[in-house]
Amino acid sequence: MKPSRLNQSKPTADVGRRGFLRGFGTLLALPYLESVGGLMGRPSERILDAPPKRLMVLYSPNGMHMQDWRPTAAGKGFDLPYLMEPFTPYRKHLTVISGLAQNHARPGKDGPGDHARAAAVFLTGAHAVKTGGQISVGPSADQIAAAQLGDATRFRSMVLGCERGGNSGQCDSGYSCAYSHNISWQNKSTPAGKETDPRQLFDRLFRGSNSEEATAAATERRKKRRSVLDYVRDEAKRMEKAASASDQIKLDEFQSGIREMERRLEFVEKDHVAEIGDELRPQRKPKDFGAYVRLMMDLQVLAFQTDRTRIATFMIANEGSNRSYPQIGIREGHHEISHHRNEAAKQQSVRGINRYHTELVAHLLKRLDETKDGNRSLLDQIMLLYGSGIGDGNRHNHDKLPIALFGGGGGALNPGAHVVLEKETPLNNLLLTLIHRLGCLSTPFGDATNLLEMV
After folding, report:
1. Cα–Cα dist 378/301, whole Å
2. pLDDT tier at 343 (50, 70, 90 boundaries)?
3. How far apart are CA 196 and CA 200, in angstroms?
4. Structural domain of residue 428, as residue ranges?
5. Which residues fall within 8 angstroms of residue 417, CB to CB, at 6 or more apart?
6. Which CATH number belongs to the domain containing residue 161 in this structure?
7. Euclidean distance between CA atoms 185 and 144, whole angstroms
8. What total number of domains does the chain contain?
9. What's the pTM?
């Protein structure tokens, strides 16, 4: 059975403790509101809890130009290097962690295939089996957390990406393509399938359920060009009357955000349809890669805001991706130039791609920071890990990994420093620390040796 791309969807009765607006085939989760808990008819739907903690992992392929990544000073007073300059407005939320390694991503007896191993091992900490096309690696840290905590939300986790890629066949020196294309794994042999289509993602999040009524509502909305908000207008008016002045502002901002997202999705589809015939069905994603990434990021923020999920992974691109970036003047493939052999021109292009990616991450940080969740921002509540399973793309090393951690984790993190660990400290120590602070019970994980108290 093909795994759900929003892993795993559950019946609407289990959605959680926030407020919801209902209409024909539509169940729309609201952001955290302080003043309207008593409006909800059933206790399971009342707003009883403080804003929850969240975990997101953001993956960048092909390593990093490390000379422009690693700060020169440890502790609180470090300067942001070139690749981290886009993080300047959010540096109080930033922890840079140096010295981490994923030992099981190393070749051992398996030989070439560093890109496949880099992605497969990044969140699983397990050796990726290569021989005979066999798949065995997981489960990943995000899915371990989802299995323990996912019942609080409609979707246990979200698994997103901006490059599809099949899971069959071989992609890297005899390794299954599934390894290069996934960082999230439900179990040893099953990746948690990525959602790459923004329209499908929006519909899964906000059209309600998979019932016939929900399907009919989605069809009618598109045919009549109506908003999901049109189907919950009566309940929205009732909610607004009972809400406090500050919560009315939140509701207005939330509804404006929904309509803007729908407008952007419609614009993207029109842009494609006007340019190509019906025989070439559009992918429903922006032609510009940066716009595509930002759209997927914005949908993820909306999912957090409405508490659709609290755990997410997002691959900016598949490991080993050879995508070019003409929008920033780089027409060579990313993977190709990551093997720069110290050629100055290729190094300059690699750092340009890395900088472009960190600028996209800064967009996500901005959206999280400006989106309120109770009295705090989503950035205050989240633990956001950004990094790669390869250190220097030219060397294919799996130590000295580029790892940055953002957010306050609802008070679970102490951000704002460059933490320099002993060499070969397992990345799994950090992963175990994050899922532990998320509220998961301790569990053996990869080659983790202990929790990291300094983050």
Report:
1. 8
2. very high
3. 8
4. 51-196+289-455
5. 74, 75, 76, 78, 95, 96
6. 3.40.720.10
7. 9
8. 2
9. 0.78
